[in-house]
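Quick note —
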Amino acid sequence: MAIVQTTNGNVRGAAEGELFSFKGIPYAEPITGRARWLPPQPRRPWPGVLDAQSYGPPCPQFTGTVNRTVLFPKARRQYLSALNGPSTKPESDDSLLLNVWSPTLDRDAKLPVMVFIHGGGFASGAANELYDASPFAKKGVVAVVIQYRLGPQGFLHGQGLFEGDFCGNNRGFLDQICALKWVQENIAQFGGDPSLVTIFGESAGAFSVFPLMASPLAKGLFRRAIPMGGMAQTCAPAENYQAMTKNVLQEMGVAPGDEAALLALDKAQQMKLHTLVSKHVFGKGDPDRYGLLSRTKVGFVGAATGTDFLPVAPLASYSNGTPNDVDLMLGTCADDGQLFSLVLPLPQAWSARLFMNQLRGLIPNNDISAVIKHYRSQMPGRSNGDVMKQINTDAFYRMPTIAAAEAHAAGHPGRTYLYELDYQSAIDGLGAIHGIDVILLFGDSHAKTLLHQDAETEALRDQMRNAWVSFAKTGKPKAEGMPEWKPFDKAERAVMVFDRKTKLMTNRDENLRKYWT
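Predicted structure written out below.
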């Protein structure tokens, strides 16, 4: 056991081999009563020693149970549960927590710090066993995993509908900033260097990294960023969200200014509120009004622009040189779009076809037939399901990620690194699915089911961890057995392709990419 003094009080952690771990450390006040709908407040000091030897409870979750019909074989259900399933602990209002792993508690060690933001579509997820960050700490960094408010508690943007900041905008993102401020104030006590922080996140965590890079409120809180399997184009103007929030609250019997009515909504009613927002945003499916997430029918809404947190959309900010002068490493999984075939309640081939209809407004000239024809010509011999999966992947993940790389490289030459992950899951049919990067990078809670148990897989896991840690330490990703990683630019478009045999490619799938420009 080890005891560390933080600005809030003493915490007792555990020794895990050569590492120290501290789990469930509060960084903000509980989200009870009015606090549920207000910006986070830093945690007040506690007396005595806080036990931090086990994972804390998750924030309230806003997602249904994983489909258990014959359409989802056991292994696929396990995949969905692994990434978005319920925590082993009951949810709690005292859940603005974080976990820390470190190889040393010497405050003079000044190790690089890596702060991870979990995924789950802004509706589910927690800093739990899935995100065991000890593999990073073993490579000489201090690793932190944070929790933040979800669903309507974190992302129902209603600034101006109530007095002051009640039900204000971007509360979930403000939670993340509050956690990053805690890191600045305390991480030296755990052996970390507050001036050398890298933020990284997967899926909704990546959707968070992109606006954090552009937020003046996050200025000086981190130096580097790694969004994994996300898109920067998930944001929308605050006035659009405010109008939507007003409508759905009125459907729930909550009039503008009636704080008591909003406070009276219990968890079941908040879940109904979540569903109403989803129906309103996803039903309209208007990416110009609500961002790209409105086309996915998955999760909740993203950041509100035109706000103190995010004055302008991320891509415009990157091109102009963001308020946060950061190095960027970003990428996608080759089959990110396969996720949608699993979460829609239809057989896989039907789901992909159904989901194609959500592409209207995203593809060139809204001509779905033309894009299918083009992809078939570039993917000879591949099944219709493969073609549609690739279009989904490109529309929602790969092309938006490339656009972010282009924008960042324009404002930060030589400091942008692009990757793609081609490694295929051990579960037949999943491929390089959305989230497989998390399973490769973090601990082993689901590795035996989702990954191949062979030497090449373990070598890839080690290589990727080394690349991530190298980037956090120096701003340049390097790893044994990996080619020299050239920065991304619009001339060569260098991309590191992680697989059993990792390779650097230039202008990959140029004919597919050009179709979207």
